[in-house]
Write a structure and sequence with these properties.
167 residues; alpha+beta; Heat Shock Protein 90; 5-stranded antiparallel beta sheet; 4 helices; 5 strands; globular; Anti-sigma-factor_SerPK
């Protein structure tokens, strides 16, 4: 670099440093989401029905799975993806102002629930290779051990369950 001899150049971060920095930022954002909205493992958390709430729900889910339940990064990754899909469906298809997120753990299982005021049940549709939408429930079906929807007097709860190893 002509003319910059003797000027210290910024060092590039190594891959491991970047991963640690990213993990620290994600953990901080997860803790902020828990502080703002509450812990979905302690009771239902209500979030505004907006596309941006999917990222909040993902942060909450990741924090619960890793920080509070101490489960594997792979379980966290699958949980976060499936939460995003259920939240996306609640936001896109229900016309609700808010939705609820709740996470439960019992011996050998985790369960994630998304409650919304619509009584319209989710429908697993065939997925084709070139489809650009409509894959959410397909992913839920493939990555979870069980999933379903329970009708409520006012709305429904769409849920999934995954087996987990207890320590």
């Amino acid at each position: 670099m002509a003319g910059l001899e003797g000027v210290e150049q910024p060092r590039q971060r190594s891959g491991a440093q970047a991963v640690r920095l990213t993990a620290a930022v994600e953990e901080e954002q997860g803790l902020k989401a828990l502080e703002t909205y509450g812990n979905p493992a302690e009771g239902e958390v209500t979030l505004p029905s907006m596309p941006e709430s999917a990222s909040t729900a993902r942060r909450l889910a990741q924090s619960v799975v890793i920080r509070f339940w101490g489960l594997s990064p792979q379980i966290a990754e699958h949980t976060v993806l499936l939460v995003s899909e259920l939240v996306g469906n609640a936001v896109r298809h229900t016309g609700a102002r808010t939705f609820g997120l709740r996470m439960l753990r019992r011996r050998g299982w985790i369960r994630v629930e998304v409650r919304d005021p619509s009584r319209g049940l989710p429908c697993l549709m065939p997925v084709h290779e070139l489809d650009v939408t409509g894959r959410g429930l397909f992913l839920v079906d493939k990555l979870s051990d069980r999933w379903g929807a329970d009708l409520l007097p006012r709305g429904k709860i769409t849920w999934f369950e995954m087996r987990v190893a207890d320590r």
